[in-house]
């Protein structure tokens, strides 16, 4: 936290989250006053436990709160217990249709099943899956997708639309509620951002369970990030969303990074270094773009929330530094000014600046972490 962004002083920054009930995904809370969590999904073969654990490790390091793995076959659910044991974060098992995979996944220690109860079929099978979830402390996610709506809803509405998606979600939810099972969250995703946003808005008014927000099949790294940011950003800004997944045709680690950046931009979650940088121009006193690139890489390991401003010249440097924990503003004659807690502190040569900033940030992070530990111990 920068100590500078108190929303009570800046009401135009306040986001009021939609009240939702809280559920658990393993040891992670979702909904209510719990922080908005960031998820991703592995794209390894789940049956290859080692490869999957390796990818989960990378996602954990990037800050993932929850990871989903797909369980299309019995080989996958067989590998699941090894995967769950090796993971620090709770694992969601993605199940489609095959109720047996759901039961196996619950037994294997999945923290949550992504399954649509209406797709399971026979009522005794539905009951069995719900019972397995209950017995093993598993929550569920109902995941409605505009591309796979039930035929009777497509017939009723003519084409996929927000109303059809919400009706589908509520139908699935009713099955769980009828079994007195309330540990579930819902997603209503479409690849079209207008449909996604409208569906979540509609759903948010009709049920109080936590919502898992995402734009499905958003696209590649850049286009998918932009699409997701507009759609999910719109919802999050309106206070809708308790856990998020950015779906990118890219390395899943990127999904986590984008998810956190989205939440950071909205002040909903703080993790790692938030770098504020100017685009640079002829006035720059040092190479801003290269410096920011280097600093991003050098500071990627810091999880402590902190802000850093890297600004080319005094036009915007002092103003931005005022609102960040540490700042550097280009000056002239190969040196610039280092700001600490918003105040000019000392001059530093451009040549040594990257090394110096890294040291300052690492020291400040250690200091903040120690303070937090002390606070927690009291
Ligand atoms: S802060 Fe200075 S260097 Fe950066 S873009 Fe603005 S005028 Fe250019």
TrEMBL record:
Binding site for [4Fe-4S] cluster: 278, 281, 313, 320
EC category: oxidoreductase
Cofactor: [4Fe-4S] cluster
InterPro entries membership: Dihydropteroate_synth-like_sf (IPR011005), IspG_bac (IPR016425), IspG_bac-typ (IPR004588), IspG_C (IPR058579), IspG_TIM (IPR058578), NO2/SO3_Rdtase_4Fe4S_sf (IPR045854)
Keyword Transmembrane helix part of the UniProt annotation: no
UniProt domain IspG C-terminal: residue ranges: 274-362
Cleavable signal peptide: none
Pathway: Isoprenoid biosynthesis; isopentenyl diphosphate biosynthesis via DXP pathway; isopentenyl diphosphate from 1-deoxy-D-xylulose 5-phosphate: step 5/6
Pfam families hit by this protein: GcpE, GcpE_C
Positions of the IspG TIM-barrel domain: 21-259
Cofactor comment text: Binds 1 [4Fe-4S] cluster.
GO molecular function: 4-hydroxy-3-methylbut-2-en-1-yl diphosphate synthase activity (ferredoxin)
This enzyme's EC code(s): 1.17.7.3
Alphabetic keyword roster: 4Fe-4S, Iron, Iron-sulfur, Isoprene biosynthesis, Metal-binding, Oxidoreductase
Reactions it catalyzes: (2E)-4-hydroxy-3-methylbut-2-enyl diphosphate + oxidized [flavodoxin] + H2O + 2 H(+) = 2-C-methyl-D-erythritol 2,4-cyclic diphosphate + reduced [flavodoxin]
Keyword Transmembrane helix included in the entry's annotation: no
Function: Converts 2C-methyl-D-erythritol 2,4-cyclodiphosphate (ME-2,4cPP) into 1-hydroxy-2-methyl-2-(E)-butenyl 4-diphosphate.
PANTHER family: 4-HYDROXY-3-METHYLBUT-2-EN-1-YL DIPHOSPHATE SYNTHASE, 4-HYDROXY-3-METHYLBUT-2-EN-1-YL DIPHOSPHATE SYNTHASE (FERREDOXIN), CHLOROPLASTIC
Family: Belongs to the IspG family.
Protein name: 4-hydroxy-3-methylbut-2-en-1-yl diphosphate synthase (flavodoxin)
Natural source organism: Phenylobacterium ferrooxidans
Gene designation per UniProt: ispG
